[in-house]
Amino acid sequence: MIASPDRTPLPREFFHRPVLEVAPDLLGRLLVRDTPDGPIALRLTEVEAYDGQNDPGSHAYRGRTARNEVMFGAPGHVYVYFTYGMWFCMNLVCGPEGRASAVLLRAGEIVEGAELARTRRLSARNDKELAKGPARLATALDVDRSLNGTDACATGDTPLRILHGTPADPAQVRSGPRTGVSGDGAVHPWRYWVADDPTVSPYRAHVPRRRRS
């Protein structure tokens, strides 16, 4: 018999660590999104670490801006950004306040509220695809910029919270290059995933955009 996942909230101290420690430790944790129509819970199966001003792939590499302000704040908060003029993606801030780093939530398994996620992910061919990729994950959970800065470690009434869940077996954790990252940041093996999990997104190397002639 498989034990139910631990629904104890993760403490802020969990995130007050280097991002390369936090990222693999997030696999198997439970992310809960409370919507007006009911809760949606997701087991994290794939993440990527971004190490702020030490990392050319990070939004904070060149310092603080209005867009990345949350990354410089307290650990355990949600950083949401808009990409390609179409999609939202969500991250969890790590490390000490003032030193920007965050973990991008790339994929997961919807374990509660799948019927709600399906209404937002009509193109998904099956439930394994509901949150298979960072934009799909945010869409399935109804995440947009209104949730930027949300405290995922807060107790009580909060739209997003991160719970202990069932941590992934370290023997099943894999790492490799981050998806779509170019330049000096492309070589970092800072993408982490649960081996053989069907909800993990496929790896894609960065492809430069061609300008129209």
Describe this entry's structure for a reader:
The structure is a single chain. The chain is α+β, with helices and mostly antiparallel strands and 213 residues long. The protein contains 4 helices and 9 strands; from the N terminus they run βααβββββααβββ. It has helices at residues 12-15, 19-25, 114-120, 134-140, and strands spanning 6-9, 30-35, 38-50, 78-83, 87-93, 102-112, 160-165, 173-176, 191-194. Strands 1, 2, 3, 4, 5, 6, 7, 8 and 9 form a 9-stranded antiparallel sheet that branches. GO terms for molecular function: hydrolase activity, acting on glycosyl bonds.
What is the strand and helix layout of this fold?
Blueprint: E1 6-9, H1 12-15, H2 19-25, E2 30-35, E3 38-50, E4 78-83, E5 87-93, E6 102-112, H3 114-120, H4 134-140, E7 160-165, E8 173-176, E9 191-194
Antiparallel strand pairs: 1-7, 2-3, 2-7, 3-6, 3-9, 4-5, 5-6, 8-9
Name the features.
213 residues, 4 helices, Putative 3-methyladenine DNA glycosylase, DNA repair, hydrolase
Report Rg: 16 Å
% residues in beta strands: 25-35%
The N- and C-terminal alpha carbons lie at a distance of 61 Å
Query: Whole-number average pLDDT?
Result: 92
Helicity range? 10-25%
Main sheet overview: 9 strands, antiparallel
Note poorly predicted spans.
none
Specify the structural class.
alpha+beta
Instruction: Please give the count of helices.
Output: 4
Gross geometry: globular
* Element-by-element helix/strand order: EHHEEEEEHHEEE
